[in-house]
């Protein structure tokens, strides 16, 4: 077994899941969450069991109730809808997604055409595009490049979704630059550190592996990308699974080396379940392949921290009285 490191939870997912947990403790159930807080079945089910109610839109939340926005970010109109319904909104958007929103706003204010490389319909892309709908065009991979039209080829920038394949994105950018030589790049990487680090680790193990298993859900963009990266870098096969029980033993037939990683929204316990499943089938020799150290953490959303502080002060005053 080759076990990729880093894998699993990133700082943005950790913060988003903790936001829902702390909100449940502070306000009590139910707490409403617009969209899946992170794209992972197990995480969503576990939070539902604790009293989170997942909805698709704000109009499913009772007036005045608490609603948490997911890690993928929302368009400004979603905040406006929440205000109109007097919802108490807590924004768990990952700060690295917020950074892309800020870039979109800044370039739109300077009247640039913005080419947003990303997957059509993905929540993050919908949220980012909502910041500047008149300036943003979606480019969903290299095949979309020929359809791009811009007002001024000297005033164009590309931005991207945070969870794409680094290599595929650069291929799209190369094609865009052939058509638009003056295309500007974002001031810093939009594909986030966690997405990049997990892809680098998979590239390292894939050439040695007959099979690479990726723990993650089908709607998790970064998890799906990991299976593609594994195949592009030499794995004979790669499978995406939510749980160990989904492993088909036929995938392991004849395999001498199996690689394992997990997407940025996947709790480590699910990886440990896969290791146990494989150990029971003879894959007991596990080597961790470590390609980066991660130390980033994000503070909880300020609106939640404020309420936590007020609750702690009220509890302290009660016990002093
Ligand atoms: S994958 Fe990246 S952008 Fe998405 S939540 Fe994690 S750190 Fe943030």
Oligomer class: single chain
Question: Which CATH architecture of the largest domain is right?
Answer: 3-Layer(aba) Sandwich
The CATH C-level name of the largest domain is Alpha Beta
Question: What is the N-to-C succession of helices and strands?
Answer: EHEHEEHEHEHEEHHEHEEHEH
Helix content: 25-40%
Shape: flat
Detail the poorly predicted runs.
Answer: none
| Main pleated-sheet profile | 5 strands, parallel
Keywords:
Rossmann fold; 17% strand; 321 residues; Cobalt-precorrin-4 Transmethylase, domain 1; binds iron/sulfur cluster; 3 domains
SSE map:
Blueprint: E1 2-5, H1 11-27, E2 31-34, H2 41-50, E3 52-55, E4 66-69, H3 76-84, E5 88-91, H4 95-109, E6 113-117, H5 123-129, E7 136-139, E8 156-160, H6 166-179, H7 193-205, E9 211-215, H8 221-232, E10 237-241, E11 258-262, H9 268-279, E12 287-290, H10 302-320
Parallel strand pairs: 1-11, 1-12, 2-3, 2-4, 4-5, 6-7, 6-8, 9-10, 9-11
């Amino acid at each position: 077994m080759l076990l990729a490191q880093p894998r699993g939870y990133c700082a943005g997912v950790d913060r988003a899941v903790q936001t829902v947990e702390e909100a449940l403790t502070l306000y009590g159930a139910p707490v409403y969450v617009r969209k899946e807080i992170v794209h992972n079945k197990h995480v969503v089910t576990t939070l539902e069991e604790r009293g989170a109610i997942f909805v698709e839109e704000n109009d499913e939340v009772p007036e005045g109730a608490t609603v948490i926005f997911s890690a993928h970010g929302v368009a400004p109109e979603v905040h406006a809808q929440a205000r109109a319904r007097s919802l108490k909104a807590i924004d768990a958007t990952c700060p690295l997604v917020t950074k892309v929103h800020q870039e979109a706003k800044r370039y739109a204010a300077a009247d640039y055409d913005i080419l947003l490389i990303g997957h059509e319909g993905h929540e993050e892309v919908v949220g980012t595009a909502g910041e500047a709908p008149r300036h943003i065009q979606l480019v969903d991979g290299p095949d979309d490049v020929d359809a791009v039209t811009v007002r001024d080829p000297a005033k164009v920038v590309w931005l991207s979704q945070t969870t794409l394949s680094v290599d595929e994105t650069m291929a799209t950018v190369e094609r865009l630059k052939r058509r638009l030589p003056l295309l500007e790049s974002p001031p810093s990487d939009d594909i986030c550190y966690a997405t990049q680090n997990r892809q680098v680790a998979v590239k390292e193990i894939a050439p040695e592996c007959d099979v690479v298993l990726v723990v993650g859900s089908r709607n998790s963009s970064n998890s799906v990308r990991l299976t593609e990266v594994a195949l592009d870098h030499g794995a004979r096969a790669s499978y995406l699974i939510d749980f160990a029980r989904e492993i088909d033993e036929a995938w392991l037939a004849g395999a001498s080396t199996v690689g394992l990683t997990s997407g940025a929204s996947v709790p480590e316990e699910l990886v440990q379940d896969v290791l146990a499943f494989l150990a029971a089938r003879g894959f007991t020799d596990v080597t961790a392949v470590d390609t980066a150290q991660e130390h980033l953490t994000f503070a909880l959303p300020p609106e939640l921290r404020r309420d936590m502080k007020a609750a702690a002060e009220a509890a302290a005053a009660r016990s002093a009285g």
